[in-house]
Design a protein that fits this description.
The structure holds two protein chains of two kinds. Chain A is mainly beta. In chain A, 7% of the residues lie in helices and 45% in strands. Chain B has five domains: 101 residues, no CATH class; 80 residues, no CATH class; 101 residues, Beta Barrel (Lipocalin), CATH 2.40.128; 81 residues, Immunoglobulins (Immunoglobulin-like, Sandwich); 126 residues, Immunoglobulins (Immunoglobulin-like), CATH 2.60.40.10. The chains are: A mainly beta, B alpha+beta. At the A-B interface, helix 1, strand 10 and strand 11 of A face helix 9 of B.
């Protein structure tokens, strides 16, 4: 219990501090004006990050040059700022406007080439980070939680997967909707067309037939002497590893009495290989502090990193933490260079911190114009700018 | 955030301030309902409104509902006959609380939430209720409502429709939240908290007491001690009351002023007073069949500062309300203040076995000062104090030794605030309570005797190693050594702290009582945490 108390108290402190701090910076006049600078190495491929922040910006960041090269202002309100990128790297699809609208933004021009207002008529639709693009780039998927707003009452509707044509242009409507499990957050697409939905388990859906199966049992995993898993994941990660990945926490009991007082707390990851569909879950270390997001370093699957107020590095084989550094402030969302040479921390505030994954030395920060990133995820991909 | 804050301020004020501006709306409540509600709610031939007629709640509950209708659902509470802004809202709250309220018995288990007793730790009958309902708001918020089964079902749909994250957050994502809510919670709520209009109809039929007159007031405010005084109530212009409030704490500090009161549902007394320049609110319940009010009076803008109080009609049934101090050591001689109402000036004074009244001064119907001696061989325990017909069981305690002290509350929450933000600090205040171990000499057994509040020296310390490492004592705020009042630090990120975190802390609250040359120590816990941004009347 003490462990739980400490964790939650620590979480409250840091998140609050940063929200207030970001508000203060907004007030200090960091204008979110559109910027566009010429990239000196035009023609060469570079690692690019897209990430959203308040008031409703989508930034294109040249990671090699350590600078924001374009800031696209999107209509409507912010939130949650989840971004999925088309396989060709030309379009970023942003979930925003209070978890309702999708905007497809041309990365080179900021032009909105696709949009969908999910709420239609008497129905209000929310999406909690559930957005993904098919590997052929033709379809966009969102997980929808609809509610009918009737005159004197609300009526919660069944959750569903909405399938959009990415060539549908502005004000697109779904090509079709398919019943889906509730409580889905992150999603990803496999090379065989499967849509993976991260919820109480990780589900696999055939977006043509709507057939759903459990791809990776999470809450339904029945593991001796382990509690039910808890997953808090609103950051679609792993595109640089062609994987869907999320962390879970669980208690590991000493014996059948399942005494929480003597239980060990563990971190594990749940992973889908998007090339093969193979599912893997594995304990990677002890749970000592709360972490928000984590992933393996590209080409180093034995090195798993997690972040919140510390950046932690784990040896997966040994299931041990091997390094940890305190951060300047909380960062919610981790990511890597496509070759694994650098580690990027985003989310929460309005700077991207760059770390050396070997030494956990901080290599620099990239300041974003505008306010905090809040729950936004970063997406990293390689592209000619 | 600004909108929320404004909403909450107005929410907090309206039910209590309804009485400040006596209703001037020309139209009836029914006319206001038709004008304001019929756009969405249907009224059938019997006058029954869809949804509205299927629930009963407190005045605060109705007011929160009406404000939500305006803020979220686009309603406009208007009087077709005109009238000043806000009057229609006040008329409607009154109408709904008077016609679809809760009986005293129905609200009794949950009054702490109406009284803003912030450090109440709720205990619920089932884990399911605690995790499905009381993890986002108090269980009392549910307990203070009565609905039909269909209406509870509508409420579940509203919850997930309006707060879609409910099924994603902790203790929501670990289960089929919607399925459990609809299939398990709805039937349970309909059974435990049914609409049951018969109970309400019976309560409405009972005669209600008048409120005008002089009331004796006694109470206790942590950090200040006993309060005794008067409240004079006179009939106002529109079923409301003018209130004059006068009295003082045990240290002689006065508290006086005036305001307005309104009674909802026949027994829900709500007053808004300005006492010594500070806005106070009273949330009291009139005991059925008894000229007695009880509840809490708290500062409007710092609700943690409150007087737990009772009021008894002067000239009504004779009552003994409080004693200060409420204990005496065996073998000691002591001056005691007795606070009462309607006391017989000639009647015998009884203090129980082992106690002798040496002298009486300042005797009146409102109380007296007694010089009392406790026999050296007097048995430990509570005594019934009587003045003629009036008696109060356990009003005075005889103890032989003070064996230990506890901190009350044992666990408290304070909140950082100020510093340019919208929320003030929420302070925490503590009492040191003395105990005797009783005849068996063992602490924590059934024969332990609660003696009462003692003067203590107060301090804080890190609760654990993490709190020490984070220097919580340095940053989280300051404890006043004499009063036991803890004032938290300023809100916002603190650049001097690790991670630039704010001035949160996990502290031990330490009380030291000097008693007959020995030091008795006690320990509690204080969590200093972040602001609450959403502070409606019922949390």
């Amino acid at each position: 219990m003490l462990k739980g108390l400490r964790n939650s108290a620590g979480l409250g402190r840091s998140t609050h501090a940063l929200l207030v701090m970001s508000m203060a910076l907004l007030a200090a006049g960091c204008d979110a004006e559109e910027t566009s600078t010429t990239f000196q190495g035009e023609g060469a491929a570079s690692d690019v990050m897209v990430v959203m922040n308040k008031p409703n910006n989508l930034h294109v960041v040249d990671l090699g040059q350590r600078r924001v090269i374009r800031t696209c202002e999107l209509p409507g309100d912010f939130g949650p700022g989840t971004v999925a990128v088309a396989p060709d790297g030309n379009t970023a699809y942003a979930l925003t406007n209070r978890f309702e609208n999708i905007y497809g933004v041309a990365i080179d021009t900021c032009e909105i080439v696709f949009s969908a207002r999910q709420s239609q008529g008497e129905e209000r639709v929310k999406t909690f980070a559930g957005i993904a693009v098919s590997k052929d780039g033709r379809e966009l998927y969102t997980h929808q939680s609809p509610t009918r707003l009737l005159a004197d009452r609300y009526e919660v509707q069944g959750a569903r997967l909405a399938v959009y044509d990415t060539n549908g242009g502005l004000d697109s409507l779904p090509l079709r909707t398919l019943p889906a499990p509730r409580q889905i957050t992150i999603m990803a697409t496999g090379e065989d067309g499967t849509v993976y939905l991260g919820g109480r388990d990780i589900f696999a859906m055939d977006p043509s037939s709507g057939e759903v199966r459990v791809a990776l049992p999470s809450q339904s995993a029945d593991i001796a002497l382990e509690s039910q898993r808890d997953v808090l994941s609103v950051w679609p990660l792993g595109s640089v590893n062609n994987e869907m990945v999320r962390m879970y926490s669980a208690a590991r009991f000493q014996d059948e009495s399942q005494d929480m007082e003597t239980a060990d707390w563990i971190w594990g990851y749940e992973r889908i290989d998007l090339a093969t569909g193979a599912a893997e879950d594995r304990v990677f270390g002890p749970l000592e502090v709360v972490l928000f997001s984590g992933m393996a370093r590209p080409d180093h699957p034995e090195q798993f990193f997690g972040v919140l107020t510390q950046l932690k590095k784990f040896d997966v084989a040994a299931a041990q933490e091997v390094a940890s550094v305190d951060l300047e402030h909380s960062y919610y969302c981790i990511n890597f260079a496509t070759d694994g040479s650098e580690l990027y921390l985003a989310g929460t505030f309005n700077d991207i911190a760059i770390y050396d994954p070997d030494t956990l030395e901080r290599l620099g920060n990239i300041q974003l114009p505008g306010g905090d990133m809040s729950l936004a995820n970063s997406q990293v991909f390689r592209r000619v700018l | 955030m600004t909108i929320k804050t404004g909403l909450i301020s107005s929410l907090a004020a309206t039910v209590l301030l309804a009485c400040h501006l006596s209703a001037q709306a020309a139209g009836s409540a029914e006319a206001i309902m038709t004008a304001s509600c019929s756009g969405c709610h249907k009224q059938d031939d019997n006058g029954t409104w869809s949804r509205i007629s299927e629930q009963r709640k407190t005045p605060e509950g109705w007011h929160m509902t009406l404000v939500r209708m305006e803020e979220i659902h686009g309603a406009s509470i208007v009087d077709p006959a005109g009238g000043e802004p806000g009057a229609a809202m006040r008329t409607l709250v009154r109408h709904l609380a008077d016609t679809q309220g809760l009986t005293p018995a129905e609200s009794a288990p949950w009054r702490y939430v109406l009284e803003r007793e912030l450090n109440t730790i709720e205990e619920h009958d089932t884990e399911l209720f605690a995790s499905m309902c009381a993890r986002c708001h108090s269980g009392a918020r549910v307990g203070l409502q009565r609905r039909s089964e269909e209406e509870w079902r509508h409420l579940v749909h509203f919850h997930l429709g309006q707060f879609p994250s409910a099924e994603y957050s902790l203790m929501g994502r670990d289960r089929d939240w919607l399925g459990i809510a609809l299939n398990e919670m709805v039937p349970w709520l309909a059974s435990e908290l049914p609409l049951d209009n018969d109970a309400w109809t019976q309560w409405q039929a009972q005669p209600k007491q008048p409120f005008a007159g002089r009331w004796r007031v006694a109470g206790h405010m942590p950090g200040k001690g006993l309060f005794a005084g008067d409240m004079v109530v006179t009939d106002g212009s529109d079923r409301d009351y003018d209130v004059e409030f006068n009295g003082e704490f045990e240290n002689g500090e006065p508290l006086s002023g005036a305001g307005k009161a309104l009674v909802y549902s026949g027994h829900e007394w709500r007053a808004s007073l300005t006492l010594d320049g500070e806005a106070y609110q009273q949330v009291l319940m009139a005991e059925p069949g008894s000229a007695q009010l009880h509840g809490r009076m708290f500062r409007r803008d710092n609700v943690e500062w409150g007087l737990r109080m009772q009021a008894a009609r002067a000239g009504g049934e004779a009552r003994i309300m409080a004693m200060q101090p409420s204990y005496i050591r065996a073998g000691a001689e002591q001056r005691l203040l007795l606070v009462g109402a309607g006391l017989d000036l000639e009647a015998d004074i009884g203090l129980g076995a082992g106690l002798e009244v040496l002298g009486v001064t300042e005797r009146s119907a409102d109380g007296m000062v007694l010089q009392v001696r406790a026999a050296a061989d007097a048995a430990e325990g509570g005594r019934t104090v009587s003045v003629g017909e009036a008696g109060a069981e356990g009003m005075l305690t005889i103890y032989r030794s003070l064996d230990r002290v506890t901190v009350e509350p044992a666990y408290a929450v304070a909140r950082v605030g100020g510093n340019g933000g919208s929320q003030p600090v929420v302070e925490a205040m503590f009492d040191a309570i003395g105990f005797s171990n009783g005849p068996d000499g063992e602490p924590g057994t059934e024969d332990d005797l609660r003696v009462g509040p003692l003067s203590a020296k107060w301090s804080v310390a890190p609760f654990n190693a993490q709190a020490a490492a984070d220097e919580d004592v340095r940053f989280a705020g300051a404890m006043d050594a004499a009063s036991g009042v803890f004032t938290p630090g300023a809100a916002g990120p603190n650049p001097e702290r690790k991670y630039q975190t704010n001035n949160a802390g996990n502290l031990k609250v330490l009380a030291t009582v000097e008693h007959e040359g020995a030091l008795l120590n006690a320990e509690g816990q204080l969590i200093v945490t972040v602001q609450r941004w959403n502070n409606p009347p019922i949390r």
